[in-house]
Automatic annotation (TrEMBL):
GO molecular function, one term: transferase activity
Coiled-coil residue windows: none
Highest taxon above the source species: Bacteria
Organism for this UniProt entry: Anseongella ginsenosidimutans
Pfam families xrefs: APH
Protein name per UniProt: Phosphotransferase family enzyme
Record has Transmembrane as a keyword: no
Keyword Disulfide bond carried by entry: no
UniProt domain Aminoglycoside phosphotransferase: residue ranges: 19-255
Annotated keywords: Transferase
Length: 360
């Protein structure tokens, strides 16, 4: 696909722009466009329509959110899509891939690991601000861009189904993890109970709050805004907090096989809750406040189930670089879950302290 055609789709003249591959995303193809005369930047992305089967839902959600923010908070930095020549948010190439252009956030950088607790606080604050600013918008107006993405009950069912069809060898290899996941079925039940409670508000959540989905300001070092809004969709409070706990608190990633290194860094856990609640405490219902500590457990259990399910199914979903990698990933997530469970009482106390700190 010639880039000149893509640019033309957006009414941009190919000769005026320089285009380079950009960033380290795994899902979409991302490019930086720079206008040669002025140095102005734009972000060009080809959306992965194998992952996102309904790209119009993504564009529609971003548009609804953008319109709401423009009306209620015009100064808020949000990624408003640049229109195509036809006035649309997406342009489709001959192969059927959708492309979009977003404002480029200048003087900013992203990171792949959380090195300091202050970064966790700052990132969490930005995800909280996003959800808070969208709290006045009816979440049901947005569409799920990945249906059942964080549906823990379904993930648990899929694990049970995989057990039915898995080969004996894999089941034997994974017997310890199968036991640990089965013993925690109560978490899936808890999830189903929590989300039907009227106090558990359907909210507009980001759903992919890993650290490289936040841009940090070059000068201040503070998080500037969330990016990667492909999964901006209706969900529950647990999703964003939970994925931050899952991906910020351990000094090592889900790929680490030396489980002695998988741990909960208390300072990072506290920092991310502090940052999140500094912006969201006043917005939460009493019910949500009472159940915040469920978030990390939920997301870790879900990811452990998903890796284990994929291992049992013969590694059909997550890319692996060596046999057994999905089982190792599941082990890693179960270890972190165990460490988190050990600290549950102190985490509940911490959350209570923070809620008191941010009470209006
Ligand atoms: P993931 O693997 O996290 O799903 P992705 O393929 O969906 O990633 P993005 O996260 O949207 O892609 O973008 C990839 C990278 O491009 C980001 O990590 C960031 O470095 C950079 N980037 C994205 N959006 C912007 C923006 N608006 N301004 C500047 N840089 C951006
Ligand atoms: Mg990303
Ligand atoms: Mg993404």
């Amino acid at each position: 696909m010639g880039l000149n055609q893509v640019l033309d789709g957006f009414g941009l003249e190919d000769a005026s722009w320089e285009c380079v591959e950009f960033g380290s995303g795994h899902i979409n193809n991302t490019y930086r466009l720079t206008r040669k005369q002025t140095g102005e930047n734009l972000l060009l992305q080809r959306i992965n329509h194998f992952v996102f089967k309904e790209p119009e839902a993504i564009a529609g959600n971003m548009r609804i959110a953008a319109d709401h923010l423009e009306a209620t908070d015009p100064d808020y930095l949000f990624l408003n899509a640049v229109k195509t020549k036809e006035g649309k948010d997406l342009w489709y190439d001959e192969e059927g891939f959708p492309w979009r252009i977003l404002p480029f956030i200048d003087n900013a950088y992203s990171m792949d690991e959380v090195g300091e607790a202050g970064q966790a606080r700052s990132a969490a604050r930005q995800f909280a601000i996003l959800t808070r600013k969208l709290a006045g918008l009816d979440a049901s107006l947005l569409k799920p861009t990945i249906p059942d993405f964080h549906n823990l009950e379904l993930r648990y069912r899929q694990f049970r189904e995989a057990l039915e069809t898995a080969g004996e060898n894999r089941k034997k290899e994974a017997s310890g993890e199968i036991g640990q996941c089965s013993n925690r079925a109560h978490l899936a039940e808890e999830y189903s109970r929590l989300i039907v409670h009227p106090g558990c508000k359907l909210r507009i959540m980001h759903h992919d709050t890993k650290i490289n989905n936040v841009l940090f300001d070059v000068e201040s070092g503070e998080a500037k805004c969330p990016i990667d809004l492909d999964t901006l969709m209706p969900g529950y409070i647990f999703s964003d907090l939970g994925d931050m706990v899952r991906t910020y608190v351990s000094p090592v990633s889900e790929e680490e096989t030396d489980l002695s290194k998988v741990a909960v860094r208390d300072e990072f856990y506290e920092a991310l809750y502090d940052g999140y609640l500094s912006e969201m405490a006043a917005e939460l219902s009493d019910f949500e406040k009472q159940h915040l500590s469920f978030s990390g457990k939920m997301l870790l259990y879900m990811q452990a189930l998903r890796f284990l399910t994929d291992y049992l199914q013969g590694d059909v979903y997550y890319k692996i670089h060596y046999p057994g990698q999905n089982l190792d990933r599941s082990r890693n997530q179960l270890k972190l879950l165990l460490e988190l469970e050990k600290k549950e009482v102190s985490h509940i106390q911490l959350i209570e302290r923070l809620l008191k700190k941010y009470r209006e």
